[in-house]
Amino acid sequence: MRALDAGILVCGECHQLSRQQPGAHQNCSRCGARLHARRPNSILRTWSLLLTAAVLYIPANVLPIMTVNLFGQGSPATIMQGVVELIHAGMLPIALVVFVASILVPTFKLVGIALLLYSVQRRLMLSPRQRIIMFRFIEWIGRWSMLDLFVIAILVALVSFGNLASIEAGAGAMAFAAVVVLTMLAALTFDPRLIWDTAETDLAHD
Asked: Average pLDDT, stretch 74-94?
């Protein structure tokens, strides 16, 4: 049984439980935010953010993410080129961290959120428990997507010795940052309660 079936609404801002009152609009008694049974246009907003992130994911991997200049010479490198250079330099653990944070995590988030949306809309054969576990994992892993950008920001700030050595962020870094932010927003706009709504509907049809 869902909370909505019992006439209970959850505030999206402070998570206060409120008894549903008859009428068009209702505000939270604690913070005053507008109460909704479900987040308005959750699926449409999530799809919009996700598709925008997917489009920007291409330049994030194709364009150079940073340029390392040593003694006045240097060449821009994409994410994968940076991983390969780290491997050739014998820094396999760092290369693995960059590969996971910059390649695997964004890809998993894009595919995972798309699968959640598709499963809610098209009744894909995934149990509600599997969908919730996937959603919670996407929320948890999202914080590590910024790791690569933090490393670049620190390097740009610290490594600045004129013509001797310097590091510059490239256009790929901005595109990658946009992908990270958009996927985080997509996870926030997706209403996980829709998972249980479809589960209730499926049980009613069985």
From this structure: 75
Q: Which residues contact 116 (CB under 8 A, 6 or more apart)?
A: 131, 134, 135, 138, 190, 195
3-state helix, strand and coil shares in percent for the chain, rounded to the nearest 5: 60, 10, 25
- Written in H, E and C, the secondary structure of 58-91 is HHHHHCCCEEEEECCEEEEECHHHHHHHHHHCCC
Closest CA to 192 of 50, 45, 43, 54: 43
- Could you read off the pLDDT of 57-83 as tens digits, one per residue? 999 889 887 776 666 666 777 878 877
C-alpha 200: how far from its chain's center? Answer: 27
CA 85/CA 58 separation, integer angstroms = 21
pTM, 2 dp: 0.74
